[in-house]
User: Which sequence fits this backbone?
């Protein structure tokens, strides 16, 4: 067990925790906006997968990671548009629309992927490099853990206070939260609810697509089937575990990523535990939270309930 | 006085119904104008049209003498029309301040809290409204929430205020205060449309427009008519409002107690005390009325007495047998019938047909089963008999109950509970939202059961009805019985005080 406390391993675990956090954080903090507006997008996993796949296609065929990032966001937007059409315009049950998105994304990416690699070795690409922030990266420990990361990781962390500010300090955020609590209160003031629901879904889906893109470009050099492996679901779980508050979501994502990071270091740590245990812990923790260990829930009252006048 | 808001030959149809037909309505500057009518008479539809929430198919609306077309409530709000909905449209998790300002700004990203606060404080001072702006709405009493709704309209600079059944959730004292401030508002230049079906309130208005089946019957001044005349205009015939409590001699002091409740206390899942040391007895052939502002523990009390929830402390004794803690099926087996307050959500399964709803809860009973199968033939016979007996208007027993009117749906519940119970009848708001004719019928049925020797617990928001029907009236406030009064000697004021939580000067 003494290796557990070895400095190099600890730094490695923490640095990779921060990196693992990035895609989940993008998705979770973005979907928080969607959920605050009352729309329970259950298609996060599929949207993220689509983002990752799109990023792969664009990066491997053009060689430009930034073009790939934009493409991932655009694919997220497309999935968002579909989700918003189903939930806000057609008022489909949110769970059914999410199911549709996930099945669509899983099937479509795999099909397309097979066509893309048919008859040739799988193309690869060069992903993101770390960007050391001058000055800060020289700080012992912290520099290596926090300030020698990919650019998008910094962006993901910056989004947390940005989204908090939008939700709690702007007129727009107040109206958006009102949508999740009691959409009729806006409707009777003549405010266009559907338009705001679209916007909220789009923000979440674009950020989820971006998270998927980072998952591709920041961790790997090639696409694998089902590469998201439940990270989209983890983002949804993080919102629940974080009690629908930005800082809570951040904390939940941190814990989940730490567990995953430990899981990937299990062999180095020579822990005699299957690493799947660590991967399962976030879900177990969330089930406990949902079972009512929490005193007061901030879950939007109308979350997942289509609004009919 | 010039008309500020007017509807001219307004017609609004919904699939299968004409909600408003050729309605001419005129609101004068500075008056309180009451819209009076039964449920479904078209009061709410008319006000929703005037507020831009619905769009009339024919006719038009005039504001300040000019024809206007409201595409959405936003247009009406811009004109200066504010509406306080019967079911409050508030966000429980927002503060009073946030509830008032949400959706009111047109542009800019700022919340502008300090400016908004200053304006609202000024409004409160002007109209004499007291409200803590930083309190969360979930922590406010229902009566206070009403003020938030009114402030929302005033904040939008309403010149016309539509109040939809504003006193439904208020104690008598709170209602009085509301009307005082409403008068004050009129003096300050506001014009008010008051939707009501309570005759006492209607008589306080400047003018009354009576609606029946979507049409205007007449517009009158209350001073020129009697309450009886107004009621007749509303219903279209004479109604015996007072169902006489004639056979009071069955109520001797030595009657057998059917139900004895001792020290009953219940804390809900959130740790809130919903019932606090309740002590009650109901005798054979006695109606015990239960008065109180809704949400003060009535629901929990009814659920406790029918075994739906199990209070942590106290005893429930039914004809000598302690039954607290038993599952609700045992209550039913022992002859307890429950008429819940939310008939479509708790009393019925709306998608099921009348026959199925008639045996709901008794579906395991030997009468209705053949082995593991339902005996549909017998169920059909019983249900169709009850449909006749209770004069339920429906195409057949196979009609889903969500196709029935509120009154007929309520009769399905009554029929089921009356037939299957034989000792104790628990009726929570059995007449809420029903038309006068049906109310009369429901009360007559309850009286009939009382005469058969049932013990009856009857909760109602209509104090007049409780005074007419009950042998004794218990008043509940914040989960406590604040007093038990004799309807022959008590006054509305005394009950009002007890409803507000006062326990002074109470004699049982």
Assistant:
């Amino acid at each position: 067990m003494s290796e557990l406390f070895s400095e190099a391993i600890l730094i490695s675990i923490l640095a990779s925790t921060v990196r693992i956090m990035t895609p989940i954080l993008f998705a979770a903090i973005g979907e928080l906006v969607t959920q605050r507006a009352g729309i329970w997008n259950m298609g996060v996993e599929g949207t993220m997968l689509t983002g990752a796949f799109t990023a792969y296609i664009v990066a491997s065929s053009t060689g430009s990671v930034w073009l790939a990032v934009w493409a991932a966001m655009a694919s997220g937007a497309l999935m968002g548009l579909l989700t918003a059409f189903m939930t806000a315009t057609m008022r489909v049950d949110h769970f059914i629309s999410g199911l549709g998105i996930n099945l669509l994304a899983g099937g479509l990416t795999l099909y397309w992927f097979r066509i893309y690699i048919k008859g040739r070795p799988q193309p690869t690409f060069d992903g993101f490099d770390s960007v050391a922030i001058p000055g800060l990266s020289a700080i012992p420990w912290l520099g290596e853990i926090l300030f020698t990361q990919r650019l998008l990781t910094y962006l993901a962390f910056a989004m947390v206070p940005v989204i908090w500010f939008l939700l709690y300090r702007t007129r727009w955020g107040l109206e958006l939260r009102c949508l999740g609590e009691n959409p009729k209160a806006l409707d009777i003031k003549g405010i266009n609810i559907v338009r705001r629901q679209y916007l909220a879904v789009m923000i979440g889906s674009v950020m989820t697509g971006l998270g998927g893109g980072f998952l591709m470009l920041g961790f790997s050099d090639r696409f694998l089937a089902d590469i998201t492996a439940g990270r989209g679901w983890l983002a949804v779980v993080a919102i629940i575990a974080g009690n629908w508050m930005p800082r809570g979501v951040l904390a939940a994502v941190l814990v989940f990523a730490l567990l995953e990071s430990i899981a990937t270091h299990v062999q180095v740590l020579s822990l005699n535990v299957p690493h799947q245990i660590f991967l399962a812990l976030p879900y177990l923790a969330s089930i406990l939270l949902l079972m009512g260990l929490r005193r007061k829930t901030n879950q939007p009252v109308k979350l997942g309930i289509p609004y009919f006048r | 006085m010039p008309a500020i808001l007017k509807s001219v030959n307004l017609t609004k149809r919904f699939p299968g119904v004409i909600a408003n037909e050729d309605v001419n309505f005129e609101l004068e500057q500075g008056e309180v104008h009451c819209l009076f009518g039964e449920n479904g008479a078209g009061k709410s539809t008319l006000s929703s049209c005037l507020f831009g929430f619905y769009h009339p198919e024919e006719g038009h609306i005039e504001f300040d003498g000019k024809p206007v077309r409201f595409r959405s409530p936003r247009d009406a709000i811009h004109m200066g029309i504010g509406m306080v909905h019967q079911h409050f449209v508030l966000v429980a998790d927002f503060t009073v301040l946030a509830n008032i300002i949400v959706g009111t700004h047109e542009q800019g990203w700022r919340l502008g809290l300090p400016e908004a606060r200053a304006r609202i404080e000024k409004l409160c001072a002007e109209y004499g409204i007291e409200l803590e702006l930083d309190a969360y709405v979930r922590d406010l009493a229902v009566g206070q929430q009403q003020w938030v709704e009114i402030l929302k309209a005033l904040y939008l600079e309403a010149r016309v205020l539509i109040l939809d059944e504003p006193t439904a959730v208020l104690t008598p004292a709170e209602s009085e205060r509301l009307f005082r401030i409403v008068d004050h508002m009129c003096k300050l230049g506001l014009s008010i449309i008051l939707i009501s079906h309570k005759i006492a309130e209607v008589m306080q208005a400047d003018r009354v427009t009576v609606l029946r089946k979507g049409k205007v019957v007449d517009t009158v001044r209350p001073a020129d008519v009697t309450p009886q005349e107004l009621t007749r205009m509303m219903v279209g015939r004479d109604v015996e409002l007072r169902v006489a409590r004639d056979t009071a001699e069955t109520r001797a002091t030595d009657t057998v107690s059917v139900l004895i409740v001792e020290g009953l206390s219940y804390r809900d899942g959130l740790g809130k005390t919903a019932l606090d040391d309740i002590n009650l007895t109901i005798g054979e052939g006695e109606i015990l009325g239960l008065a109180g502002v809704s949400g003060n523990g009535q629901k929990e009390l009814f659920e406790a007495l029918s075994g739906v929830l199990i209070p942590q402390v106290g005893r429930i004794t039914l004809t000598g047998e302690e039954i607290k803690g038993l599952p609700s099926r045992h209550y039913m087996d022992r002859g307890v019938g429950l008429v819940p307050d939310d008939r479509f959500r708790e009393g019925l399964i709306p998608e099921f047909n009348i026959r199925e709803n008639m045996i709901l809860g008794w579906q395991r009973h030997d009468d209705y089963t053949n082995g593991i199968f339902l005996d549909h033939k017998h169920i059909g016979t019983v249900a169709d008999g009850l449909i006749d007996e209770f004069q339920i208007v429906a195409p057949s027993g196979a009609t889903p109950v969500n196709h029935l009117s509120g009154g007929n749906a309520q009769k399905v519940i009554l029929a089921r509970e009356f037939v299957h119970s034989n000792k104790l009848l628990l009726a929570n708001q059995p007449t809420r939202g029903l038309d006068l004719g049906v109310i009369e019928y429901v009360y007559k049925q309850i009286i009939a059961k009382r005469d058969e020797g049932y013990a009856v617990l009857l909760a109602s928001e209509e104090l007049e009805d409780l005074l007419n029907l009950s042998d004794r009236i218990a008043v509940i406030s914040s989960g406590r019985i604040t007093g038990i009064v004799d309807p022959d000697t008590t006054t509305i004021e005394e009950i009002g005080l007890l409803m507000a939580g006062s326990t002074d000067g109470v004699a049982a």
Remarks:
- The mean pLDDT of chain A is 91.
- The two ends of chain A are 61 Å apart (CA to CA).
